[in-house]
Amino acid sequence: MGDQDRRSFLTGALGVLGLAAAASGADAWTPLAQTGAATSAAGGEKYRIDVHHHYGPPTWVAAMKGNPLLQAPNTTWTPEKSLEDLDRGGGAAAVLSITNPGLYLGDKAQAVRLARECNDFGAKVVQAHPTRFGLFAAMPLPDVDATLREIAYAYDQLHADGIGFMTSFGDTWLGNAAYRPAMEELNRRNAVVFVHPTAADCCRNLNYAPGVHPASMEYGTDTTRAITGVCFSGDAVRFPNIRWIWSHGGGSMPFLAGRIAGAAGTFKAQLPNGLIAELKKFYYDLAGAANAGVVASLRQLVGPDKIMFGTDFPPGGHILETAQAIRSLNMFSDAELKLVERDNAVKLLPRLKVS
Known about the structure:
Blueprint: H1 3-24, H2 32-35, H3 37-41, E1 48-54, H4 58-64, H5 72-75, H6 79-88, E2 91-97, H7 108-128, E3 133-138, H8 144-156, E4 162-166, E5 168-169, E6 172-173, H9 180-188, E7 192-196, H10 214-232, H11 235-238, E8 243-246, H12 253-261, H13 275-279, E9 283-285, H14 292-301, E10 307-308, H15 319-328, H16 334-348
Parallel strand pairs: 1-2, 2-3, 3-4, 4-7, 7-8, 8-9, 9-10
Antiparallel strand pairs: 5-6
């Protein structure tokens, strides 16, 4: 399908489905506290937008076979499974992204190839279900030139909703000066950038607790390293048009923010307003983070207008159960839940408002 044909198809499909949604009142938001879990499970109003939702293109699954960071549910993903979870949980749309092990396993050429194959596959899923899915296009860092090409392809040809990065690549993190050309381009495009954690080479096999998977601690720690890198390198200030979404409630950053901010005094050029001011500009999803400790720390750092709904589907959670877990905390009002579950996503990704 040519570029013009693709735009025509998407425009027409969005228009038709948007009119249908308006006619049925599908854009309305009804708190689960009022409708009850059974209503959502039985096909009630669909309004939640899941910004942390994974897919498994066949070529990526094949390339990652045998990697200990690859989780089994990601190898059997299908669009139908995502749609079923959306319908069951009152989900309007999910934004697809690649999860661990990411794309880069030490072979830049493989990462470049996989980025294009994953993005083409994801774009076809969005094309088939334009009101139910979005796409955070995968990037082949640490190859900066290839990443610049993929950014252009993702936006100009595939019309992706945003860009997806891992927190680290080998033993380099976001914020590395070598990655600045890619950040400059994303800033120019006012990009939404979703960041998923991984375990860096340095720390993947630390034997601090035999049998503990890196997901248990290293992923949150690597998110904190990446956020620190983006801020202390000056990239957060230098590229203010990038809208960052950090996974899992920002890892351990909300809890450690005050301590880490103590080092900002020697980084006046990079952080003229201090670390906390930059952290407050970011967005944070609640995938794997719908517990009182995380949310309490996160709410000390940012308001509900910076917190987003995410599940980590298929390995990490489901929409209905995640929504129930968030509500069980009694830490958000109905108005705040509306921001978390839908409105913050629509603000960043307005195309999904039609869902």
